[in-house]
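At this stage, I wrote out one protein's amino acid sequence and its backbone structure tokens, and that material follows here:
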Amino acid sequence: MIKEIKYVFYLVSIFFFIFFCVKYYFSDDHIKKSYRSKENIDQKIKMYEKKITLLENNTNNIIEYPENNNNKKKKKYFFWNLINQND
């Protein structure tokens, strides 16, 4: 008997928890607050965006590419031949 009452209490408490969560989530107050908070975040982003300083680009011609034309006599290596060598 006590076991059944305990199960009923658990089920009722879970039902009420889900009911109140859904009720709060879909309430007009919550929807208004969430919209306002999103709007505030957008305004803050725009405000901080104006304060950001832009740095000058000083990375022009940094990469130097080597010329591979000088090394035409490249030795071709084969994987299995390298394994079989006992040098």
Observations:
- The mean pLDDT is 84.
- The radius of gyration is 35 Å.
